[in-house]
Amino acid sequence: MTSRLRPSVAFLTLVMAAALLAGERPVQAAPVDTPADAPAEDLAVVLVRVRQAQKTPVASDVVLTGDIQAQAQTNVAFRTNGKVAERRVEVGDHIAADQVLAVLEPLTQRANLDNARAALVSAEAQLTQAKVTFERQKQLIGSGYTTRPSYDNAEQQLRTSQAAVDSAKAALGTAEEQLSYTELRAGVSGIVMSRTFEVGQVVQAGQAVMVLAQDGPRDAVFNVYEALTANPPAEKTIRVTLQSDPRVEATGHVREISPTVDASSGTVRVKVGLEETPPAMSLGAVVIGRGRFAQREAVVLPWSALYRFDDRPAVWIYDPATGRVSIRGVEIDRYGFDDIVLKGGVEPGETVVIAGIQFLRPGQRVAVAGQADAAANAAEKGGR
Length: 384
Known about the structure:
Elements: H1 2-24, E1 46-52, E2 55-57, E3 61-70, E4 73-77, E5 82-87, E6 94-95, E7 100-104, H2 107-143, H3 148-180, E8 183-185, E9 190-195, E10 202-203, E11 208-214, E12 218-225, H4 226-230, E13 237-242, E14 249-257, E15 267-274, E16 286-292, E17 297-302, E18 307-309, E19 312-319, E20 324-329, E21 331-335, E22 339-344, E23 351-355, E24 366-368, H5 369-383
Parallel strand pairs: 1-24
Antiparallel strand pairs: 1-23, 2-17, 3-12, 3-16, 4-11, 5-7, 5-10, 6-9, 7-8, 9-11, 12-15, 13-14, 13-16, 14-15, 17-22, 18-19, 19-20, 19-23, 21-22
């Protein structure tokens, strides 16, 4: 039994020694087909997807969301100082032209009116006395029983009294008008949009306390991106529909374009005057405007191609001759729902990376997804 086990033990010993010797030998890596002068970072090839830039027709229809506003708004203010005693309307109320909106405490104005009335009564009494005196002097001078200076004085007193009455009447009219100023009236019919006063508050003359949207024509107001105003619609008619009920429609024309750009949103306010306003399109109603713009051609890329470089929009350009990518700044014409329209920076025929840009750096060697799959399939077939 012992003689039979000895050859097996010797065989196992030889196998273990060979395994140890093999572990000490360096393992040679498979040869990599890379250029001798290639830098170390080029050894990591990134797989990307590309698209050849081409000019395509840009969508001619533009859809915008806005709201209904009055073409004319009025700031309503008291015409005299005072303390608010009564407020008769609320925000959203429809008012008539001569309706009283609020009332001030009229104590001072009523006192001035009473003084003016008393002054008029006194002036009229003096005028009556002056008329009697003048008529007496007129009769006496005809008979020779008075002097000319006395007659002239009576005539002068009559004229002075008449002027005093006229002045008192004017003062009375002013006092009555000042009393009417204690009642706030808009002068036009419309809807109260906002108010900035309460009962008991002291207001100054000319201080706007209400904003009134006048009855009449309405505007559909939209905030559009600046590039859109550079290419006005081919058709001047804008179709407006109510967002809550698309069956409610109206047509309008661009009435006003703001000359400035909103710094916070980067948009321009455009007002479209409606030809006829349906009753359902009340103030503040959300509407959708559709305009048909002149068709034009531009380079359109998916959102995945957009990159940010030096705080500017950019894309990665793929060079098929070298297999490397470079970054290039672009100018955006407008942003779509799932694509971007370029105004400049990429010429038709150039190849743009549309996927895998997060792993790229300038001069990076890349492999195109479609080409890499084709090469792998060809190598697999050749191996078979």
